[in-house]
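Dear support,

Our group has been running a series of protein-ligand predictions, and this particular one with S-adenosylmethionine is the one our PI (initials K.S.) wants archived with full inputs and outputs. We had some confusion internally about which version of the output was final, so please treat the block below as the authoritative record. The input we submitted was:
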Amino acid sequence: MPVSVEHALSILERPLLDLVYEAAGVHRAHHDPREVQRCALLSIKTGGCSEDCGYCPQSAHHDATSPREPLMRTPDVLDAARKAKDAGASRFCMGAAWREPKDGPEFDRVLEMVRGVAGLGMEVCVTLGMLTAEQARRLKDAGLTAYNHNLDTSAEHYGAIVSTRTYAERLATLGRVQDAGLSVCCGGILGMGETRRDRASLLATLASLEPQPESVPVNALVRVPGTPLAGAAPVDPLEIVRTVATARILMPATRVRLAAGRLSLSDETQALCFLAGANSIFFGERLLTTPNPGPVADDALLSRLGLETAGEPARA
Ligand code: SAM
Ligand code: DTB
Ligand code: SF4
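Confirmed final output from the archive:
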């Protein structure tokens, strides 16, 4: 069912505590509120990307000092996945700094990585840029759980952030991913100069996808020196809470993931986000190229909040 921007905005703008209270109720009706999934991230191909996304340290258009690394070897990726599993991650997401994957040996290697991670009994997700229908089908056949492809912001604000591709191209890839029978992981970034209406517009677009995304990552912009958005004003943490709560109300069955930017969020803000329906985090020392709180801090946080790890694989 299509969700209108006005409807999403009317939820997003409710008095904060009413909003969180309702979202918590929806969350508890659809999920075990004590469970938080740990999802590990690995950059399998880093930097030198031809796109000009204003937030991204991996774009070749900016002066950010992100390293450039060619596509990793499969055994190294599988070692990282095993370590993540041993540390409690049940989902492994691999990211590549590509506009789109080229068919040939590199794409075949990614398929091999997907088969390997799936073989470890983990949920497996990749984010490789735009896909053809055939590539989506081959990823599905290799055992991929979900494809991450973020819309990042509203259609209206997108052109201020990225010029080398369009919102329509992003939506077309999402359609091909769904047609291949893959789950969609699709979310956005807060703190890129967008308005509340932009956030409502993004949430309405996500909630109108059919089926709704299996997971929605909510990123707070990591302001990396050298990127055009390095000087953006930091987002008010309570706006992140509002966004999480609205996502939960509009998409009751979706996993809402607190993604990039948690280093700039207090434990108390994260606690409010979990109350408002977030039930997954990126876990580990690094995101793709930037730091993340790390397992020691996250173990401590989850234990202070009395939260448990969802789908925890048996530890060796
Ligand atoms: N190149 C592929 C693409 O753009 O679809 C996949 C990798 S790209 C790095 C994956 C996502 O990382 C982006 O869509 C964006 O949401 C997120 N991201 C990149 N840089 C970020 C930053 N500085 N802060 C927060 N999120 C960021
Ligand atoms: C998502 O929404 N956030 C992750 C994951 N999906 C691929 C990426 C965050 C990247 C943050 C910047 C960096 O570490 O390079
Ligand atoms: Fe490239 Fe993805 Fe970064 Fe954009 S977000 S510059 S497509 S790696």
